[in-house]
Amino acid sequence: MKILLILMLIIFNSCSLFKPKLLNRNLSTAAKSVCLSADGRGRLTFLKRKYVFSYESYLDEAQANWLLALSFPLHAQETFKIDWSKNDKIELISSIEDKILRENKNINPAMLHAFTENVGSLIKEIIDLRSKKVKTKFNWIVTNKELSAKSKDSRFEANFLNMLNSGYFGLMSLKYKVDGNSPYKLDLIVSNCLKE
Fold first, then answer.
1. Distance between CA atoms of 69 and 67, rounded to whole angstroms?
2. Pick the CATH number of 24-193 from 1.10.287, 2.60.40, 2.50.20, 3.30.450
3. Whether residue 85 has pLDDT greater than 70
4. Are 130 and 31 in contact (CB under 8 A)?
5. 167 secondary structure, DSSP code
């Protein structure tokens, strides 16, 4: 009986060590849990075509830009840069759009551009939310474990999941819907979050 009681105490104590980290329900604080300077792995899905890559991202608030560099196996590195240094107006500089359009003739360029514009607006809004600027283009929901955003037209959706012990989300999942489906999707899995 004593052995059973000791085993039960060990099990309950070990379970309490692995409690998931809960998210602060304040939107500004939750936005700080999105790691914008990181490296890891990712996957892009366009219609039925999938690309896997490793990535590095870097937020430079002093220069007012965010850079995402994607490294595809046996291919040149592609980039996606958001710049808001000119009067807070978002400018997108992307080589990844050209790559996707070259390799996929059936992709609608306007839809692809709408997807990348939403990604740019989302990243800029996360930065603004951290400093408590609250002019939002997205509808935000904060739960104990997840931060999510949806565009006003409900076509674009972002989910930040898998809170790591470091206090950052381990997964950023971005989707753009066309005709009720999600043919445009970007998943970024954080391996290392650099100090921001």
1. 6
2. 2.50.20
3. yes
4. yes
5. S
Determine the straight-line distance between the first and last CA of the chain, rounded to whole angstroms: 52
Task: List all residues 6 or more positions away from 37 whose beta carbon is below 8 Å from its beta carbon.
Answer: 57, 58, 59, 193, 194, 195, 196
* Span 121-144, average pLDDT: 88
Which position has the token pair 């080589």? 95
Torsion of CA 142, 56, 42, 51, to 10 degrees: 140
Q: Which contiguous run of DSSP H or E holds residue 152? A: none
Q: Is 44 exposed, middle or buried (0-12, 13-18, 19+ CB in 10 A)?
A: buried
Residues 6+ apart with CB under 8 A from 156: 114, 115, 118, 122, 138, 150, 174, 175, 176, 177
Q: Under a CB-based contact definition with an 8 Å cutoff, are residues 94 and 80 in contact? A: yes
pTM of the model: 0.82
pLDDT score, position 1: 54
Contact call for residues 192 and 180 (beta carbons, < 8 A)? no
Query: What is the rounded average pLDDT for all residues in the chain?
Result: 85
